[in-house]
Records
---
Amino acid sequence: MSSTTKCLVTGGAGYIGSVVAAHLLAAGHEVAVLDDLSTGHRDAVPDGARFIEGRIQDAHRWLDGSYGAVLHFAAFSQVGESVARPETYWRNNAGGTLELLAAMRDAGVRRLVFSSTAATYGEPATVPITEDAPTAPTNPYGATKLATDHMITGECAAHGLAAVSLRYFNVAGAHGRHGERHAPETHLIPLILQVALGEREAISVYGDDYATPDGTCVRDYIHVADLAEAHLLALGAARPGEHIICNLGNGNGFSVREVIETARKVTGHPIPEVPAGRRPGDPAVLVASAARAGRLLGWQPNRPHLAGIIEDAWDFARRDARART
């Protein structure tokens, strides 16, 4: 990749896409953000990025040979919604990406970094999870992301695309004015911080009888800024005709109770918790092996400490709460 590249960031008004767009701009790249604002926020688009309000299905209207790469984040990502409305997820996540790949092919844009997910693995037989683990998604969201990975593999083999898929585990934290603003919110750390802000009475703990040290589920949390840095490295690592797939995670797990207790210390709030039953399909432990990302991309997490991740998320949550009042 040249020192400066014109990049199209689909879904760049969302949480992760906006952080990556900000990192691209800071590295000197030219950035255009394509987002239909169905789940993103116009004010999350970084200063200096061109904003295009539109759908990935219509990317052919904007993509041309001046672009050097696409970083693709545009997708619906709520697991429960995907179970209730699978057709919406297949149409948008898989069908939309098929149209995006065609637009890239027609425009001669031959470099792609794709936002994939650990949900492609389903319930793992062993942890930490490597990229060689069987893929058996347990919901339509994960299935659409896995199908997209297969599409990309075929595009690379048949048409010389250079692509990297990054399978995220639990992304958290914030980067300046870019943080989590989902509606509805389903992620543990922002939900806990809503309790600390007085916007929610208590945090629900879904199951306390798992085979883990404290009985609650263990998850791998990665700082969103570490994640963004991996995308920039992936742009440089992509090679024509190859599809690289890498996990991104800390390689360490934190239980639900560890996250709650750390948030209590960071925020200074008691954060009441209430027991709730297990959710169907929740594995006891999900932890990534990111060894391949270290080997192929030269990436390692620089912000691995849970307290630091929560501190950044807490700073953002308080600023966002003030802006809404």
---
Amino acid sequence: MTTPNAAVLLGEQRRYLLVRPTGFAGYLAAVLIALTVATGMATAWSAWNDYYVFEQFEQGSATVGPDEVVAAEDLRVALTLTNYGLYLLAGIAFITWLYQVRRNAEIFCDAPHRRSQRWVGWSWVVPIVNFWYPFQVVSDIWKASDPATPRRLDSLRTVPGSPQLGLWWGFWMASYAVSTLGGLVLVAPTVTPLDELRAVALVITAAEMLTAVAGVLIILCVHRIIRWQAQARA
């Protein structure tokens, strides 16, 4: 006859059979994030290239004419559009993965998350709350997925947060701030077109460098959560 303790253990084991693999979606998101970072850095380079080509043109360089100026600008526009496209794809892939790991996280730990499942996606696009809701969503998934977190828990607030996630969100918000404030500055009239190109290059470079750091940090977090959720639980 099955003992009560054995029956409880069997029930726990069956609970974990509901866990679904998330590696494909997670690593697809990671690859797209990496490509977004790479094209972002390429966009920053093209902005400086656009600036230097126009500077040589204004100085009357014999090797730089109107065609070279147009070509440099077209390259920057093409890389910017490519970066935006990859950014959108990476965002869709990342949110899709978040839904999957959120479902698993609720199996690993009974403690309620701060935000409901519908906020896993909406938190990124709803104004104002998108400054902190996405971080809370990812942070709670991280805490619940950690094998060191007890399954039976009243609140995830008692689980220490991740400094790595904090850094990721800090760099991501800094990138957003630089892009937004930089865009407002660029709306103001500039002395010359060359000054405007230099300002554009500075803003893009600063924003993309911050985005690159945030991208590396979130890729590492994705890898960690995938590994945690793939571990066998007793």
---
Amino acid sequence: MCGAELRCLPEGVQKVAQTLQQAGHAHAPIMLDGAARTAQEAADGLGVQLGQIAKSVIFRRKEDDAAVLVVTSGDRRVDEKKVSALVGKVGRADADFVKARTGFTIGGVSPVAHLIPSVTLLDQDLWRFEEIWAAAGHPHGVFRLAPEDLRHLTGAPVVDVVEAP
């Protein structure tokens, strides 16, 4: 992707694209015609299984106000108690907190290119799939990757942080 193509993308997607490019990631972000604010919308827009959507959920760590990013499969629900056991007590993060810490709005939070680095956890259930899709900094932007690519891009541990299916 050259500079001219990047300038046509929304600012958040440009940041994600640059981060992916610098990391040598093989797949640039794409823009969907419809919004992908939810994992279901993204799966429908891409024609993939709901579980293949790597959804980003942001929590607010109570002890130091740090952003905690949990990336899990779209068909799973994060278990807040499991997250708290790993990183300290967490609570829900509102839209203003998410935007201030990540630089992205809810519905487009990428697992990479945050304004302020987040404490990040990757759920092991993502490894059920060879190919997954993550938000690319905008409600219409996504990028393709393998779960191992996600681990490489984030440096985050792979853990069990979801409720039993």
---
Amino acid sequence: MTQPSFIRRVRGGMSVLPEHLRTALTLAAAGVPVLPLRKGKVPFGNCRACANNVCGGRPNMKTAGPCRCPAPCHAWAAATTDPQVITTPAWAPAWREAVCIGYHPGGAGLTVVDLDDADAIAWARIALPATRTVATTRGEHWIYRGAMASRNAVRPGVDIKSSMAYARYLGPGAGRMADLPDVVRALTAKAPSPARSALHAVTLPARAAGAECPHRTPAYLERGIAMAVERITAARSAIHATVYRTFLAVLSTHGRCGCLTDTHITRLFTAAQTKGETLRHCTDAWTNAATRLGL
């Protein structure tokens, strides 16, 4: 292959690729679509042919694949595994200015769970199966084998980067890569408002005549709900059974005094839906537990 002019030449006539470009070619050879990222760690602006969308749109933004423009434009759609495109002179200015390398996870059959702070990492260690991790400036990338829809802010400090998105390449990471779990897929589902769902989908047990509330302080009920949410969140298998058993335990302890409110049920349903349960599964589990207890 003819070497582009922007490849540096050193003593002895040997040529050396710029570091970012060399890494990009290594990733591309492994089947990972790459693109240069400029200051701010964002893609370069569109090329002249596409400036201000004069091209009539954003090519390939609805499907994975390289942008057809000569320079790296249209954000993630510019990512490619073609070494001839990566080393073309049209990309030379971008590589010279690049501060890091971006890649299209979905194009490589991967999903990145971007954890932006310590709280998000702590949540992931409880809620998600272990997989390959890469340290970032403020948090970690958890990388899974399998592609899915991308979505930002699926929960505090957590973004999902896969199809139609780009992520920064920060090194190979550590640990064995796991298959994409359903709990991650469920994070991007646009579930109905849990508060509204809980309010209309279940019946709150009424306090029986003459029944006494065993809760000496509000903290007792709060602690019980918090423990139930933690039990559901920590489940790594048998999610249906865990949700049912947890609902049963909550109703057994708190269901007869009439102290459970819509807010409490909302928290339980939200935890279950985050683990991939549907509203129908939550409602059925709650109803079955109440029926078993005669509520």
